[in-house]
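Lab notebook, design round three. We kept the backbone fixed and only want residue identities now. Task for the bench partner: fill in a sequence for the structure below.
Input structure tokens:
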């Protein structure tokens, strides 16, 4: 912990020495990165539902809950490790640890407890293949991405994106105990979506990352190179996003939606690439960042909806 962060944390202590807890349940919930966790739950549920066989509804519920807790644990441990740089960035300085409402030690214990509990629960409720994948995801996100890649290479989000792409695979494995082509396709979509999504954010938050000395691509390679890389990844993402229809994972509705949403992503990526004015480029990056969330949510939402409709049709017969 830096001296600056230490000083912030000291705000939660009285002058006479005893520590005064300023934390609330909302602060502990914030440690879980709820917005990220909600996306993890959604993609994991889609993976579970797309599996050819389904566990008992109670087991499925417990599995998704365990995955959610595991995702929250990863977010908590990430905040524990990144407390020093979070204190330097305007986007993150009000998080519970840098704001002094929760100590790093408390966050570490909370995150480790949830990590162990989620992995064990998933193994006992579903199977140990899914539990291993969940444990690996937490390890990869914290040790490989947060501790190593994030502060050492501008390719941090490319390699580290594997952690965010694994939840649908975990959901699929929770239902089947196996990993097949369907799960791999879902992984590929999120893996390729992560760089343009994250780099769009990094473009209009470049000053924050530079201040914290995090070598995100705009900081390390410049804005022009970042815009080009966003376009390249989007050009790869769009056709890959349509592959579920080609392999029978998604239906005609999914294919149409993937085509239209992919065209939207490509249009915004091209607009960003062509933009040379920095202020206008930041606006274009914000549009792409917002649309990218809609893109991924819509694709997985349609896959899930198609699967539910098919199951209902089978039940009626």
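Proposed sequence:
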């Amino acid at each position: 912990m830096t001296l600056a962060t230490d000083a912030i944390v000291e705000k939660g202590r009285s002058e006479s020495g005893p520590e005064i807890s300023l934390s609330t349940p909302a602060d502990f919930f914030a440690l879980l990165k709820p917005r990220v966790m909600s996306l993890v739950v959604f993609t994991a549920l889609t993976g579970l539902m797309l599996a050819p066989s389904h566990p008992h509804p109670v087991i499925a519920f417990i599995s998704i809950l365990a995955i959610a807790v595991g995702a929250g644990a990863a977010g908590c441990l990430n905040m524990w490790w990144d407390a020093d740089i979070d204190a330097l960035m305007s986007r993150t300085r009000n998080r519970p640890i840098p704001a002094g409402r929760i100590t790093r030690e408390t966050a570490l214990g909370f995150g480790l407890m949830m990590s162990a509990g989620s992995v064990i629960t998933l193994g006992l409720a579903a199977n140990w293949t899914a539990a291993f994948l969940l444990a690996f995801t937490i390890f990869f996100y914290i040790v490989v991405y947060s501790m190593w890649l994030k502060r050492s290479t501008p390719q941090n989000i490319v390699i580290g994106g594997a952690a965010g792409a694994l939840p649908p695979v975990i959901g699929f494995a929770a239902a089947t105990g196996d990993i097949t082509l369907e799960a791999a396709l879902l992984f590929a979509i999120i893996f390729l979506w992560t760089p343009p999504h994250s780099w769009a954010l990094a473009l209009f938050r470049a000053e924050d990352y530079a201040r914290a000395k995090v070598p995100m691509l705009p900081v390390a390679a410049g804005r022009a190179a970042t815009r080009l890389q966003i376009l390249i990844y989007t050009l790869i993402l769009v056709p890959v996003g349509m592959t579920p229809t080609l392999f029978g994972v998604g239906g005609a509705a999914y294919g149409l939606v993937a085509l239209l949403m992919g065209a939207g992503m490509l249009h915004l990526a091209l607009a960003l690439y062509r933009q040379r004015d920095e202020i206008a480029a930041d606006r274009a990056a914000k549009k792409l960042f917002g649309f990218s969330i809609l893109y991924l949510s819509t694709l997985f939402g349609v896959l899930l909806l198609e699967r539910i409709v098919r199951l209902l049709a089978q039940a009626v017969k």
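Keep this in mind before ordering anything: The chain has 16 helices and no strands.
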